């Protein structure tokens, strides 16, 4: 097991290393409420869109493409200022309406991705794992949307994404990416605690 892991890590491509490093840096910036989360994230998501596609993880490929689009939108939202030159968005908790919206969004996205992946598995991607890929992807879709709006609850969705992605990528031979998601899990927990404190202060 240990030797297999070392072999997998040493065989990781430069593209995978670049994606992992930029991804960790991006999540660290989001924890700090630093707008560099988005330009660094764009490097990560563009690379992982391609890596996921060639590894028969079409759901993760779609979610990384979605990350790319939402990173541009989030970059705009985080930089936006009001007439007093103050941040337009502040870290805050979700209202009941936001909770209802995000749970509905997650449920609809999961079902759409799951049935799409079942079809793709039967016709194009034999190695696809529909339920796990859809779960990680739907949670990521929800977390990314909430992060563009600086909602504390985004970190709960990131935790679900990361925990699901660890075995998902390992089974596809992307051991470095599995370790990356373990690191992201720790950063997500740290980010959750920090944003909770910042939300109380704001």
Model description:
The structure is a single chain. The chain is an all-alpha fold. It has one domain. The chain contains 8 helices and no strands. The chain has helices spanning 2-10, 14-31, 37-54, 58-79, 96-123, 130-148, 154-170, 175-201. Helix 2 packs antiparallel against helix 3, helix 2 (14-31) runs parallel beside helix 8 (175-201) and helix 7 packs antiparallel against helix 8. The chain is globular. It starts with a helix and ends with a helix. The relative contact order is 0.14. The model has no long low-confidence stretch (mean pLDDT 85).
| Uncertain segments | none
Overall structural class, as computed from helix and strand content, comes to mainly alpha
Q: Radius of gyration over alpha carbons? A: 17 Å
Mean pLDDT: 85
Largest sheet features: none
Strand share of the residues?
A: under 5%
The helix/strand order is HHHHHHHH
| Helix count from the secondary structure assignment | 8
User: Termini separation (Å)?
Assistant: 47 Å
When the domains are counted, the total is 1
- The number of E-state strands comes to 0
Helix coverage percent: over 70%
How would the global form be characterised? globular
